[in-house]
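[User]
Protein folding is very new to me. Any chance you could explain this protein sequence and its structure tokens? I have pasted everything here:
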Amino acid sequence: MKNIILFLLIFLTTSCQKNTVKPVKGDIVEAVYGLGIIRSEYTYHAKAAIVNSVKKFFVTEGQDVKKGDLLFITDQDTIIRAPFDGKITEIPVTVSENLFPQSVILTLVDLKNLYLEVSLEQHAAMRLRKGIKAEITFEFFRNQKLFGEISSIYPKNDQFVAKVLLDRWPDAILPGMSADVAFDVARKQDVTLIPTNAIANGHIVINRNKKEQKIKVQIGISDEEKTEILSPELFETDEILIP
């Protein structure tokens, strides 16, 4: 019986304890996030201009070519050459197949001049601008930190896109691969920080001088875990309750 009473007392005491933290001084970076898809600056789609067919292909899918190399010849004896260095990524037709105007015969992609096309939410697009730095993470290169910069922001098919140029590219990167992108939109040093989850409807609850009180706070920038408090002034001795 005594053991049961002791257990209940410990349980009630532990349950009544409140989780608190103290404000700290530190640095904070606010970021906007997006999903990036690798694109090539130069993609060449060779298309039929008239009803015709291919007499002969001089290349195959996956082949690297140099500018000026022969690609194919039509039944009209029209010779098509590579307009730049790249890789043949698609040949969707066969020799002697009837082709109609605008049919794609061959696709050539430049794999050296790449960029990231980052899809953005509307509120994110409004906060970004040319020149903002970005940190890029590829799932298969988690141990590598890659950096880039926004070269332009524009609408595309009723969506918002940021074009990001990287300082360097990892080996084996190909168009169509995806990456997580974080844009550094704000950075502050030596500011008052508290856990973001301590804030509820613009208020926090603090224990100051052994007195619990609810106060309204003006917040600054936030990251995933911390939020800057602009006012009122918080002290190192304050205990902030975590709901």
Summary: The chain is about 10% helix and 50% strand. Residues 5-16 have pLDDT under 50 and may be disordered.
